[in-house]
Amino acid sequence: MRHLVSVLVQDNPGVLQRISGLIARRGFNIESLAVGRTHQEGLSRISLVVSGDDAVLEQVEKQLNRLIEVIKVTDHSEPHVERELALVKVSIAGMEERLEIKDIAEAFRARIVDVAKKSIIFELTGDSHKITTFVEAMRPYGLLEVMRSGAVGMSRGEQVLKVREKKAV
Fold this sequence. Notes:
By secondary structure, the protein is of the alpha+beta class. The chain is built from four helices and nine strands. 20% of the residues are buried.
């Protein structure tokens, strides 16, 4: 099973390395990783996707909560919004093919961000499945490059990641 986990952390040097190292040492694989500052000064949010059953998720959460810089760990198993960004460069052989590719891209709401004589670069946002489906739809035309960001997510509704002080151990 795939789990999207948000980790609210103090924005300190080395925190990303400590988190990724901790997960790797436990033998878990990070499928996707995205990091960015939040609206609160001194805090960053790390979104990562890990695969495994509920026991794996529980172990990841326990290990993350042990780190001093970690403020809050949230598994987005509840209703949430999840997005990735992808840039996809596709080879273009002729005008007819160019029109076919543009029609497919339009169906996925992909935006053209660069046009060259023999290639087009599309920008696409959506969930992981949408991005994968778009990439597979473009494969027959000749994929030149694909770059995907990590998944980011937020709980739906009024639920927010609240900052609270960790209890001393």
